Amino acid sequence: MLQASGVSKSFDGRAVLSGINLDLGPGEIVAVVGRSGCGKSTLLRLLAGLEQVSGGCITLAGQRLAGLNPATRLMFQDACLLPWRTVLQNVVLAAPWPDSIKTAREALSRVGLLDRAQDWPAALSGGQRQRVALARALASNAPLILLDEPLGALDALTRLEMQSLIEELWLEKQFGGLLITHDVEEAVALADRVLVMENGRFTLDLSVRMPRPRLRGESEFVTLKERLLTHLLGY
Ligand SMILES: Nc1ncnc2c1ncn2[C@@H]1O[C@H](COP(=O)(O)OP(=O)(O)O)[C@@H](O)[C@H]1O
Ligand SMILES: [Mg+2]
Known about the structure:
Layout: E1 2-11, E2 14-24, E3 29-33, H1 40-48, E4 55-60, E5 63-64, E6 72-75, H2 87-92, H3 100-110, H4 126-139, E7 144-148, H5 156-173, E8 176-181, H6 184-190, E9 193-198, E10 201-207, H7 219-233
Parallel strand pairs: 3-8, 3-9, 6-7, 7-8
Antiparallel strand pairs: 1-2, 1-4, 4-5, 9-10
Helix pairs in contact: 3-4, 6-7
The chain binds adenosine-5'-diphosphate (ADP) and magnesium ion.
């Protein structure tokens, strides 16, 4: 569905990404992990069509990417809700017409926030705001969601709850996703494949073939997590 071949990106002559190849199939979740500053968000912005590649090519469903695409939804660390609209209105904006209100209410119900539909975003906690952002992405019915450290600002417990919710929703809806995270455990919990990025290149491509829902205590889970960590730490 989403393909990058030989993608590079430079800013003012300084290479940030080079030789990036990526192939994301329908319904597949790929995680990209790496240290801060290695180029993860730059890659996501290119895949989203927010910025242009310096070299190589990105295609979405076989078409060369040219700017933002309605098949792709984005989710960031900040929920990016419109503060002057209610929770429901924020989700309605993304839902396809003419059933947008019904679809938005269903999505809110799915993330457990239907009872907060008439509240202002400011009245919600950070975790609840991210659940609204997730509902908005779901309501759009987009086949591809790009997530840039969506849980990065949440406390550990809320994060775990959100990870289970994303896992459940994925099992139900089978959307494709690219998840950027600095949390190796999150990557193993959610992704079908984990790519490690270092200095603007992928240096490891690891398949995660565990059935869902995944148990973090299982030996395979622990082994994969350790493998990623030792690679990242350069042991
Ligand atoms: N618009 C920009 N102009 C110049 N440099 C940029 C720009 N965007 C990102 N960079 C640089 O690219 C590198 C990678 O940034 P980024 O992709 O945000 O990393 P990550 O998300 O992995 O933390 C950093 O050195 C950053 O300063
Ligand atoms: Mg980033």
